[in-house]
Design a protein that fits this description.
Layout: H1 2-41, E1 54-58, E2 62-63, E3 70-77, E4 83-93, E5 105-111, E6 115-120, E7 127-136, E8 142-149, E9 152-157, E10 165-168, E11 177-185, E12 191-199, E13 202-204, E14 212-214, E15 218-223, H2 224-227, E16 235-242, E17 246-254, E18 260-266, E19 274-277, E20 286-294, E21 300-308, E22 320-324, E23 328-334, E24 348-350, E25 361-367, E26 374-383, E27 387-390, E28 402-407, E29 411-421, E30 426-434, E31 441-449, E32 452-455, E33 462-464, E34 468-472, E35 482-501, E36 507-511, E37 513-515, E38 518-519
Parallel strand pairs: 4-15, 23-24
Antiparallel strand pairs: 1-7, 2-7, 3-6, 3-8, 4-5, 4-7, 8-9, 10-16, 11-15, 11-17, 12-13, 12-14, 12-16, 17-18, 19-25, 20-23, 20-26, 21-22, 21-25, 26-27, 26-28, 29-35, 29-37, 29-38, 30-34, 30-35, 31-32, 31-33, 31-35, 35-36
């Protein structure tokens, strides 16, 4: 009898344990699914300290004398011990070739602890275009690429994944531009790729680009300016019908139409229903645009939220709605239109008219009818008489000239890494956004160089209020040289870096590389 009396509590405990394990398992699966989703949506993310290695794909640059985007890779090592990077450099293969032009050449970089090492690809291979496959024996190392030419500079993280589909919201093939897409296949199987361009006159799928062969272990380059010429605004989808690739974009403006600049970087491997842009300019002379591209066959409807830095601007503007038709792009313009080519009416519209003059801002985009889109931010600035370009610029930078394009981010993280290069004469700005609706983020920014991790005293730590951002003129707070910036926060944040050449033309902007990214909470916006 006593035994039967005792059995019920045991059964209840057992049932509770089973239920608890089931709930925990479901929670784990949900977290794993969310983590997997966030990794699918982000093009560059560190594998993390638990991974033994990291693989990076850097495909956007040139390596011949006199070309417009001289290509280098930079490896940043945040760990206290040295790491080794095996860099395989691929020359470009002519469009239509059935085999690679030449096998890749390999070099090894030894990167000391808490330091950086760079390799100019022209020192390894001379080719009009080059790509690099960088394999590092550490999941914590981050690889970026830097391009530089007569019209400007750009420095962006390399891709850390491949995909069957890549999207590019911004682009132009008007007469002053050069728009090039790189198709990088470092894998042992060939890929077959098609390209589709969304233009002011509808979708264009040139016959030559309906089945582009990308041989195994090769880089193939498509010059869109030659194959889809004279379109003011072009969005692009690159789709692998067989195999998988890494697709990138090089875009340059020569100054003949009032805009001069250079921008480079991989595309987005996934459309998403939420995008955030951490930085908006706050000074005269900067033309700011966000280009929304809908690659699907259904219309997308999104709310756009703008949050100004100025204390007297209130918490934010009232969100406004934007509809993006199937396979079209829509541009949102902040301030003046500037010289950058935008989609024709009615696919361009002004945004944030009520922002205070000179106020910086950040923006969030939330698609609420479930149709994912791709969003990129274009900043174009010029100074008399002819300096101009394309880039993304933080509000701390002054007298900008250049062009930059950067994708929004659909993820946040508690730790980020990004390189800087004050030795090249650039001004460096860092932006940290706290997307939380109710929690303060405590942020520490450290400079990694010469074997040391040195927290920047003015930011050790720094609090960022909910739904606010911190804009930091890094070049005024640290000594010169080549270094990396590590951002550690008490909760997931977004981190963005801008570079601005102090002389001539050159702007660059990039999202920092996240560790363990998590999807943004739609309720936060």
């Amino acid at each position: 009898m006593n035994g039967e009396v005792l059995r019920w509590p045991l059964i209840i405990v057992a049932l509770a344990t089973v239920i608890g394990l089931a709930v925990a398992d479901r929670s784990d699966r949900q977290q794993q699914a969310a983590s997997a989703r966030s990794l699918r949506e982000v093009v560059s993310a560190a594998a993390g300290p638990d991974a033994r290695a990291g693989v990076w794909y850097c495909s956007e640059g040139t390596s011949s004398p006199g070309e417009f985007a001289d290509h280098s890779v930079v490896v940043s090592n945040p760990t206290p011990v040295a790491v080794t990077a095996a860099v395989s450099v691929f020359p470009s293969t002519p469009l239509g070739s059935v085999s690679p032009a030449a096998p890749p050449e390999m070099r090894r970089l030894i990167v000391p602890g808490r330091s950086q090492a760079a390799l100019r690809l022209a020192e390894v291979v001379e080719s009009q275009y080059t790509a690099a496959l960088v394999e590092v024996d550490s999941g914590s190392a981050v690889v970026e690429q830097r391009v530089q030419g007569p019209t400007g500079i750009d420095a962006v993280p390399c891709a850390s994944r491949s995909s069957k589909v890549w999207h590019f919201a911004a682009g132009s093939t008007r007469r002053d531009s050069r728009l090039v897409f790189t198709l990088f296949n470092p894998f042992p199987d060939r890929a077959v790729v098609k390209l589709a361009f969304s233009t002011d006159e509808g979708v264009r799928e040139p016959r030559e680009l309906r089945g582009v062969l990308v041989p195994a272990r090769s880089l193939v380059v498509v010059n869109a300016t030659d194959l889809a010429p004279r379109f003011s605004s072009v969005a692009t989808t690159v789709e692998a019908q067989a195999g998988r690739i890494v697709a990138g974009r090089l875009m340059a403006f020569d100054g003949t139409e009032g805009l001069e600049g250079l921008t480079a970087g991989p595309g987005m491997p996934e459309a998403a229903t939420q995008w955030v842009f951490p930085s908006g300019p706050g000074h005269e002379g900067v033309a700011e645009h966000i280009v929304l591209y809908n690659p699907s066959e259904r219309a997308a409807t999104a709310d756009i939220s703008i949050r100004a830095d100025a204390s007297d601007a209130g918490d934010s503007q009232v969100p406004f709605e934007v509809s993006v038709p199937p396979r079209r792009q829509v541009a949102l313009t902040f301030g003046s239109q500037g010289a950058y080519p935008l989609p024709a009416a009615p696919f361009s519209r002004r945004a944030a008219d009520s922002l205070p003059e000179g106020s910086g801002f950040w923006a969030a985009i939330q698609v609420y009818n479930g149709v994912p889109i791709v969003a990129e931010r274009v900043t174009a600035a010029s100074t008399p008489p002819a300096s101009a370009g394309v880039a993304v610029v933080a509000s701390t930078l002054m007298s900008p000239a250049g062009v930059a394009v950067v994708a929004g981010t659909p993820v946040a993280a508690g730790r980020h890494l990004i390189s800087a290069n004050k030795a090249g004469g650039e001004q460096v700005a860092l932006v940290v956004v706290n997307p939380s609706a109710d929690s303060i983020a405590r942020v520490v920014v450290s400079r990694l160089a010469d074997g040391a991790a040195s927290p920047i005293a003015e930011l050790d730590p720094r609090e960022v209020a909910p739904r606010s951002r911190l804009v930091v003129p890094i070049d005024r707070l640290v000594d010169g040289g080549v270094y990396a910036l590590q951002v550690e926060a008490s909760l997931p944040v977004l981190v963005f870096r801008s570079l601005l050449a102090q002389s001539g033309t050159g702007m660059s902007s990039a999202n920092a590389v996240p560790f363990d990214p998590v999807p943004l909470d739609p309720a936060a916006f």
